[in-house]
């Protein structure tokens, strides 16, 4: 099992007194090798620390957030580890897998595919919710206190992972999440490919649908730039998330940030607020 798993260290860099490391391992959920990045704050040299899981968006891998969000300084101060998985299995060569940026490689959507040939490998939900935390908690000086956040496709991933797993995360937040994937072009393309034509089956992977059945009301923190081109294109639909929350009185703070786009410049501008949100829930401050 995971305790015996071999982790191959790919790189290691000191950062704000802690360490940023990248590892590769053989993942049973995806049946492929997977790479993840982990930032361990200085405090982890003395005691176990909680973990924030960050799920990135379309076209990303484990590196985008660690290189662009500027989260390490505050994570070091707080004593918070950060783990970034990849956004899809790699190393497979399924039909059309590498043809578009919004489906297949780099676009796993954090679901468990049910449709061939994707169902053999595209099981990113199981990977990020179960396999990766089990591995992280067995190999690193971390506690079982977890939070989750993400951007765009990864914001969708963070929301559904928290909503589907009451008690597993202490807090959740998202930047420009794909809030209502069953009703936007990105989500409809991905869900048709991974989950098939039965739209009823899609609902278990849609945050707006899951809100109404939530057994735990973790307060949602969501930031959205109002100059985000994907907002204008109808891919993100934060208003649907707000409406779904209002309908069942689910707590949400949805902030429309004037002038900000969809990029990591936007994420870097507000990452400290999100880290504070998680640190409070994790009782670090
Ligand atoms: N290439 C595409 C857009 C790709 C893009 O913007 N990806 C975002 C996430 S979008 C939703 O999941 C991203 O995070 N990119 C990586 C980065 O480091 O910025 C196009 O051209 O439209």
From TrEMBL:
One of its GO terms (cellular component) is cytosol. It catalyses: S-formylglutathione + H2O = formate + glutathione + H(+). Pfam families: Esterase (PF00756). Its EC number is 3.1.2.12. The active site is at residues 152, 228, 262. Keywords: Hydrolase, Serine esterase. It is an enzyme of class 3 (hydrolase). One of its GO terms (biological process) is formaldehyde catabolic process. InterPro entries: AB_hydrolase_fold, Esterase-like, S-formylglutathione_hydrol. The keyword Hydrolase applies. One of its GO terms (molecular function) is carboxylic ester hydrolase activity. The keyword Hydrolase applies. Serine hydrolase involved in the detoxification of formaldehyde. NCBIfam families: fghA_ester_D. Belongs to the esterase D family. This is S-formylglutathione hydrolase. It comes from Terasakiispira papahanaumokuakeensis.
């Amino acid at each position: 099992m995971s305790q015996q798993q071999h982790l191959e260290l790919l790189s290691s860099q000191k950062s704000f007194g802690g360490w940023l490391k990248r590892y590769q391992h053989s993942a049973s959920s995806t049946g492929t090798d997977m790479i993840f990045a982990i930032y361990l704050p200085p405090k982890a040299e003395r005691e176990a620390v909680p973990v924030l899981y960050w799920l990135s968006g379309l076209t990303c891998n484990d590196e985008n957030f660690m290189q662009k969000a500027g989260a390490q300084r505050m994570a070091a101060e707080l004593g918070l580890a950060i783990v970034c998985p990849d956004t899809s299995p790699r190393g497979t060569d399924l039909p059309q897998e590498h043809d578009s940026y919004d489906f297949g490689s780099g676009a796993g959507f954090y679901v468990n595919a049910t449709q061939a040939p994707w169902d053999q490998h595209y099981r990113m939900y199981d990977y990020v919710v179960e396999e990766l935390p089990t591995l992280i908690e067995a190999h690193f000086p971390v506690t079982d206190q977890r939070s989750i956040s993400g951007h765009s496709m990864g914001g969708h991933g963070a929301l559904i992972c928290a909503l589907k797993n009451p008690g597993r995360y202490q807090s959740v937040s998202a930047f420009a999440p794909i809030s209502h994937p069953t009703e936007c072009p990105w989500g409809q393309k991905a869900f048709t490919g991974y989950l098939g034509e039965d739209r009823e089956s899609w609902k278990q992977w849609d945050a707006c649908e899951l809100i109404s059945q939530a057994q735990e009301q973790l307060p949602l923190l969501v930031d959205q730039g109002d100059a985000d081109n994907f907002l204008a294109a109808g891919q993100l639909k934060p208003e649907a998330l707000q409406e779904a929350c209002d309908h069942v009185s689910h707590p949400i703070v949805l902030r429309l940030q004037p002038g900000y786009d969809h990029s990591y410049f936007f994420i870097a501008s507000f990452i400290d607020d999100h880290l504070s949100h998680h640190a409070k829930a994790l009782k670090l401050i």
